[in-house]
Amino acid sequence: MGKSDIEGKYALVTGSSKGIGRAVALMLGEMGVNVAVNYNNSKDAAKEVEENLHKMGVESFIVHGDVSDVDQVAKMINQVTKTFGGVDILVNNAGIIDDGLLIRMSDEAWDNVISTNLNGTFYCTRAVLRGMIRRRWGRIINIGSVVGIRGNIGQVNYSASKAAIIGFTKALAKEVATRNITVNTVTPGYISTDTVDVLPQETKDRIMTWIPQGHFGEVDDVAHLVSYIASQKAKYLTGQVISIDGGMAI
Ligand code: NDP
Questions:
Q1: 136-186 confidence digits (pLDDT tens)
Q2: How many structural domains is the chain composed of?
Q3: Best label site of 28, 88, 125, 202, fewest CB within 10 Å?
Q4: 249 falls within a domain
Q5: Residue 155: which domain range?
Q6: 224 part of a folded domain
Q7: What pairing do the DSSP bridges indicate for beta strands 241-244 and 181-188?
């Protein structure tokens, strides 16, 4: 028996040098999936993920690309297509925050967050979709956020970008449903990563009161869900927004 029912497929995980993307890349590797590890700034960290994937016996390479830049995305997808022959599983994970109250929010803070989180998802998805349609198989898995559902003070830009991904998911799921391509969004709550771990203790204490389970999640909680959605078992699951947040979105 193989490592999983998607062994041998080819994946691209955007922003997989760190955090949730890294965990997703490694878990797909454990399933026998070959993974292109995209990074923007953290080349050494991406290299480490690639090495771990090689140790698992899957094909892997690092690929630079700022997802907010349409030309860099085109270059990145060309490189992945040349090496892998195509992308079967795209995980749109790369994302940033640039928090501040709307009344003081700069154009730059708005544009950066929308460009990376939303435009990046659009550029990467558009670039791989034709290949998926041709091969009649595909998984597009977007990483949204509980904040795109509930909203959060100081995160109007981020909430808007993540809420938009939900509409994107539902519309695209309908467009490609008959092509054996599923499109879903996972909406994590607060997950222990570099971004969350550096929050001041009083902010963490306040957030805890919003989480019925009373603690932050782990990157592998999200990676397990993404792995399921990527698998053949999830073939009838499309257009969905699935929360993994200790009950925060209830
Ligand atoms: P991290 O800050 O730990 O990692 C972010 C990753 O995204 C890095 O690998 C980074 O690459 C990459 N990245 C950032 N900007 C770009 C870009 N323009 N182009 C390509 N890659 C980029 O974040 P998390 O793991 O916490 O978050 C991952 C996703 O999960 C994001 O979409 C985030 O919004 C979402 N999320 C996270 C939650 C959490 O609690 N942690 C909760 C809900 C959602 P590099 O370092 O190489 O630049």
A1: 999 999 999 999 999 999 999 999 999 999 999 999 999 999 999 999 999
A2: 1
A3: 202
A4: no
A5: 10-192+219-241
A6: yes
A7: parallel
| Contact (CB, 8 A) for 93 and 35 | no
pLDDT above 80 (res 1)? no
Neighbouring C-beta atoms of residue 119, cutoff 10 Å: 18
Which amino acid is present at 89? I
Q: Tell me the CA–centroid distance for residue 39 and ligand 1, in Å.
A: 10
| pLDDT value at residue 136 | 97
Ligand 1 residue neighbourhood (C-beta within 6 Å)? 14-15, 17-21, 38-42, 66-68, 93-96, 116, 143, 145, 188, 190-191, 193-196
Ligand 1 centroid–CA 21 distance in Å is: 7
Q: What phi-psi label fits residue 113: left (phi over 0), alpha (psi between -120 and 50 degrees) or beta?
A: alpha
Task: Quote the ligand 1 centre to 106 CA distance (angstroms).
Answer: 21
From residue 6, give the alpha-carbon distance in Å to each of 33, 46, 109, 112, 193: 7, 23, 39, 35, 27
Query: pLDDT by residue (tens digit) across 89-129?
Result: 999 999 999 999 999 999 999 999 999 999 999 999 999 99
